[in-house]
Each structure stands twice: as C-alpha cells, then as structure tokens.
Amino acid sequence: MADSERDAEERRLSAVTDTPESATKTNGGSNGGGSGGTPPPTGPSVDVASMGMGRGGGGAPLSLKNLRTFSSFKNSVFRLYYGAMMGQMAAMNMQMFARSLLIFRLTDSATALGVMAMANAVPMLFFSLFGGVMAERVQKKYVLLWGQAASAVVALAVAVSLSL
Q1: Does the residue 93 lie in any domain?
Q2: Which residues contact 155 (CB under 8 A, 6 or more apart)?
Q3: Average pLDDT by consecutive 10-residue portion of the chain (164 residues)?
Q4: Nearest Cα to Cα of residue 152 among 88, 69, 80
Q5: DSSP-assigned letters across all residues of 89-128
Q6: Within this chain, do residues 158 and 79 fall inside the same structural domain, yes or no?
Q7: Domain, as residue range, for 3
Q8: Residue at 56 is within a domain
C-alpha cells in the first residue's frame, strides 16, 4: 500500500514538473494533435529573456544593451510625431502659464485664477465626448491636424486680443 501511494505521488510530481516536450515523449506521442510525438502549434512564443526582461530562472541578466526602450525612434514618422507633440505640449504649457500670469497681474485675485481654470476645463469635459466619437470615425491624422490648427487659432486670438 505504501509503495503504490509513493508511486502515485512520484507520478503526480513528475507530471507537474514535466515540460510539454517531455510529456509528449512519455505519452508516446498520442496527444491527438499529430503524429510523431510533436505537439500542435500553440501560437507565437515570446522569449522574455531575449527582451532583457528575464530576472532569474536561467534568463539573461537585465542589461541596458538588451532594453528596447527607444527602439521606436528608429521610425522617422514616429520621430516627427514625437517632436510635434513635444512642441505642442510645450506651447500649451507656456500658453497656460502666460494666461494665468496675465489674469493674476490684472486682477490680483486667486478666485479669478480658479474661474479661468474652470473655464478651460468645462469645454474639455463637454467636447471630449464628441472628440471620442470623431476619433473613431475620422482618420487620426486629420484629427491631429484639425486639433493643432484649432489650438493655433485660439493662441492667435489670445495674442491679437492682448496686443490691442
């Protein structure tokens, strides 16, 4: 009795630790997926260690050479997009700072700054719903172009109104 329980335990442990390749060899190749003991394809496999993400378990150590953090910058279209977005974000932050400074210098009131911030946020809340629908139905390139053009028109209107 004790020997049969020990054998059952050994079979259970070996079934848990066997890899799929060794399981097909021990089953004699009758897994219903083909002949010759080869398992059926299960989709693309990802080697985590080759991506520089292996942390133990026999994988390569984490190395800066293996990281692919900036590999997207090899694409010239992405570099152009990234540069344009960095410029747009810098311009938006400068515009927000200049507006806040102007409001504070004109009114000397923190309440006016809060009202201005709310006036900036309310259109974002309401138009974001329509923007999501538009982004689904129109090509992303044109959404970005029209959004940048609208932002430029608003910045120009603020500049002209301040110069008058």
Answers
A1: yes
A2: 91, 95
A3: 68 58 47 52 54 54 78 91 90 88 91 91 87 85 85 86 82
A4: 88
A5: HHHHHHHHHHHHHHHHHHH--HHHHHHHHHHHHHHHHHHH
A6: yes
A7: 1-36
A8: no
